Every structure is written in structure tokens, then in C-alpha cells.
């Protein structure tokens, strides 16, 4: 049986960037068929957490060029020299704590781990120092959670969308904003 992880990433201190982390917290205890992990803005420690999964589904706020609200893609399994160079630079200048998720995934592959990696991204509207998420992103919660549900069905993963939306709103409210 394949081990699957839904992984929320993002910095909750930077407005909409924390959305993946908030959504992972809302999904915890509400998902059947996989593990849910809230990595927040972790660095190299993510390697140990993610190394044994066959499928990793990243949830993150992603700047999208074509003005879409939701972005879903499968990351390429191959590692090219540009990714390796980027990862080395990331290690050199960011240190292990500031390592981005792309560098974490590349490092996993360099070490011989070969998970399928998917990115489920949503458009951020505010990327400033701010707890919680923007009103614009709040207005898209139903659409985002429903799209995630439809995507995860392909993997045999199910959850209660309404319960998740309600919990997500509570998690965001408890963060100190959007009250």
C-alpha cells in the first residue's frame, strides 16, 4: 500500500503565505486514506519527515502568472543540474533552517528517495507581515477546499468538505486575525 502525505507549507506570519499550514491543521483528524502534516516553514528537518512517503501532496500559496485561483501540478521526477545548483545555493545562503520546499524535494531525490510529488496551490493576495489570511482568500475557501477534495479523490482520499471549511475558518480566526 502506498504511503501518502498531504503536506501544508507556508509561513503563518506572512499573511496568505501561511494558507497551506492553516489548511493542513484544518484537515488533521478529518482525512481518511493518508497522513496530514503541517510543515509550516520548516527547513531541512522536513527531510526526515517526508522521506518514507510514496506520494507527497504539497498545499501552498503560490504566485500564479495566469491569474488562476488554484493550481495543481505533478512535479517532474527527474533532477536537472539547475535544480541541484539552486539547492546548493539555497543551502549556502539560507542555511538549513531557511531551506525551501523545492530544495527539500530535490535533496530527497539526490538521497535516493523518489516520491511522486504534487503541488496544490492557491493564489495569495497578501504576502506581508500579518497573522491570518486576506479577505480575498477567505472568500475563496469553499472553492479551494472543494477543488482539493476533487483532486484527492483520485488517490482514494476523502474528507468532509463542510467540516474542513468550518474548522479552517476557526483555525484562521484563532490565529489572531479575520475576527
From TrEMBL:
The keyword Protease applies. Its EC number is 3.4.23.-. It holds the Pfam family HycI. One of its GO terms (biological process) is protein processing. The keyword Iron-sulfur does not apply. Keywords: Aspartyl protease, Hydrolase, Protease. Coiled coil: none annotated. One of its GO terms (molecular function) is enzyme activator activity. Gene3D superfamilies: HybD-like. Belongs to the peptidase A31 family. NCBIfam families: hydrog_prot. PANTHER family: HYDROGENASE 1 MATURATION PROTEASE, HYDROGENASE 2 MATURATION PROTEASE. This is Hydrogenase maturation protease. It comes from Sulfurisphaera ohwakuensis. The lineage of its organism: Archaea, Thermoproteota, Thermoprotei, Sulfolobales, Sulfolobaceae.
Amino acid at each position: 500500500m502506498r504511503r501518502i502525505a498531504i503536506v501544508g507549507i507556508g509561513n503563518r506570519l506572512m499573511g496568505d503565505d501561511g494558507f497551506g499550514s492553516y489548511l493542513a491543521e484544518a484537515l488533521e483528524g478529518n482525512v481518511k486514506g493518508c497522513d496530514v502534516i503541517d510543515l509550516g516553514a520548516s527547513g531541512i528537518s522536513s527531510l526526515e519527515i517526508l522521506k518514507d512517503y510514496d506520494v507527497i501532496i504539497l498545499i501552498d500559496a503560490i504566485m500564479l502568472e495566469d491569474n488562476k485561483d488554484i493550481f495543481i501540478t505533478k512535479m517532474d521526477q527527474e533532477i536537472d543540474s539547475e535544480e541541484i545548483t539552486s539547492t546548493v545555493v539555497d543551502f549556502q545562503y539560507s542555511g538549513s533552517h531557511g531551506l525551501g520546499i523545492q530544495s527539500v524535494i530535490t535533496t530527497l531525490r539526490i538521497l535516493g528517495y523518489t516520491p511522486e510529488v504534487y503541488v496544490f496551490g492557491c493564489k495569495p493576495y497578501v504576502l506581508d507581515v500579518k497573522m491570518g489570511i486576506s479577505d480575498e482568500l477567505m472568500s475563496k475557501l469553499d472553492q479551494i477546499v472543494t477543488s482539493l477534495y476533487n483532486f484527492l479523490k483520485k488517490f482514494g482520499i476523502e474528507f468532509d468538505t463542510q467540516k474542513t471549511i468550518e474548522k479552517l475558518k476557526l483555525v484562521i480566526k484563532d490565529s489572531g486575525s479575520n475576527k
